[in-house]
Amino acid sequence: MSNKKNERYEILKGLYKTHGDLAYLLAVFGDHLAKREKYKGLRDMDAVHYYIITKFKWLPRDVRSMSYDDLRLVLTEEMEGWVAPEEAR
After folding, report:
1. Which of 34, 38, 48, 70 has the maximum number of C-beta atoms within 10 A of its C-beta?
2. What are the Cα distances from residue 71, in Å, to 6, 27, 37, 66, 87?
3. pTM of the model
4. End-to-end alpha-carbon separation of the chain, Å?
5. Which residues, 6 or more positions from 49, have their beta carbon under 8 angstroms from its beta carbon?
6. Mind listing the pLDDT tens digit for each residue in 34-43?
């Protein structure tokens, strides 16, 4: 049974590491958006939220309550072809 437990924990560890990596890349994409859109005081997730709020005219509370998966889904087209800068990898 111990091997199965260890295997399960390794799977969980990988799953949550992947979720964290995807959230990090979304924040890095926010820096890309901030530069492209010429935001002065916004970066990482604030830039992502602001971009979605202004593009779709959604309420800040609704956008801020979205999961990282949903935010990535909304930005799928925007992120097409984007590659994280070397210093962020």
Report:
1. 48
2. 32, 11, 18, 6, 23
3. 0.90
4. 37
5. 60, 63, 64
6. 999 999 999 9
